[in-house]
Each structure stands twice: as C-alpha cells, then as structure tokens.
Here is the input.
Amino acid sequence: MLNFFRGNKKRQLFGLISPGALWILLFFNLPLLIMLFISFAERGRTGGIASPVVYTLENYKQFFNACVSQYAGPQCDPFLYLGIFGSSVRIAFVVTFFCILAGYPLAYFMARQKPLWRDTLMLLVIIPFWTNFLVRTYALKTVMSGEGLINTILMNLGLISAPLEMMFNEFGVIVGLVYGYLPFAVLPMYTSVEKFDHSLMEAAADLGAPPSRAFWRVMLPMTMPGVIAALVLVFVPVVGAFITPDIMGGGKVEMIGTLINRQFGVARNWPFGSAMSLILMVLVLLGVIYYFRSSSEETRRAM
Here is the structure.
C-alpha cells in the first residue's frame, strides 16, 4: 500500500489530501445533501418527516410568504422571515465592525512586542478556545446581569441608583457575540500585521506622510488580507448564531439562528428548518462571493 503512494507525485498528493477530503465528504457534504432532501419533504403530524415521504416546495414558499396561525385566522407577512434575516445580517455587521475595530489595535500591539511577550499575548488570546463556548456565554451573563459584577460595582460606587439593563436586549446580544468571536478576528489580523514590513511606515514618515495617512495608505492596504479573513471568520458564524442570542437575548432578540434552532427543537418542523438553513447558507455565500469579487475589482482598478 505504501509503495502505491510512493510511485509518483500525483499518488503522493492523493494520499495527502484523501483523509481530509473523505472527512469533509462524510461529515459535511453528506449531511448537507441529506438536509437538502429533507427541505423538500412534508412535515409529519407529530413532527419530523411525513411517512411516506412526499416532496414539495411549500417549505421554501413559507419562508418568502410566512403565514402564522392567529385567533382571527392565518395572518400572512411576506417579510416576516426576511425581516428576521435582515436583522441577523445587521447585527452580524455591527459585531464584525466592533471585532475588527477592537482586534486590529490588539493584533498590532502583539506583533510589535518581543518574542516572549508576543507568545504570552498569543496564549491569552487562544485560552478562550480551551473553554466551552456555552460556559463562557453563561459566565458573561452572570457578569452583565442585574445583580452581576458590573452593576454591583457601579451601585456600590454610587454611580447608578438602579441596575443597568444590559441583558435580554440587542445590546446584550451584541456584547456577547463580540466577546465570543473577538479571537477569530485577532488571529488572522495578527498574522498579516506580523508579516508587514514596518520600515515602510518609517519611509512614509520620511516622505512627509503623517502617521494617520501612512496607516491608511500603506499599512492598512498591505494588511487587508488579514482584515478580510477576520471579516469572513466573524460575519459568517455570527449570522447563524443561536446560543448567544438565546442566552443573552432571553428570547426577546430574534435572529435567524434562533429561529432555525426552534424549528428543529420545539416546533419539530425539520423540513422547514432545513429549508431555512439552506436559504441562509446560499444568501450568505452569495454575499461573500459578491464582496470578494467587488474587492478584487477595486484592487485591479487601483493597480
């Protein structure tokens, strides 16, 4: 078997990529294909999938023409789920903006330190990955709650007379998402900033450029690949997030991820949940492709 892979470079390359390709095929592509078939099925009377399986487009029609049963009859709002998706995209953009705004200076500070301090700071950024995301979210909840650490300190100092409402609203959701996904923004930007030749900033200063102009015209464009990677790594998972909005929002902040989670859980409407998941994936994928194409066109025009 080993002699087969030692024969030529193509066989060696196949031997290297086959384990990862097989893993992606079995645990990503195959479940995605199963979800695709489920999205066209009818919901059973007690939930799940109807038996025998009947394929239909009603699940996709329901997303674009949402009808909710009310006491006065079915009320249809074609923008119900699209509005929730739009709200999720808006929150994702806000979270991504603050992650990049806070992560870039931190990445720059880390890259400019001596190796010992740089490795220590890198370890501090990576440490949150050693803890379960759910545990970290509940820890933040105890800090920001009405009787949490922040409100207790502010009230003891006499700065506030009543606890601040930092939980169960959009503010709490945004803070929780920034807290959870900030390391995903720091790491790729740190990689770009570390490789940046800082002597170029000195050259720009020698040519009369102030620090702000040198940053916008020299450093930021050359470290932009790290910023784009951070944008994608934060924006894509935040759009479909459901743990943080559910815990920090208390069910008052509806995002597309919490809605999908409810379809698979409480509602047991697997076909509609699968359809919503696929629609979310396609819309986000189209947005990312459009962003990359527009960015590449702007780069070519600048050159």
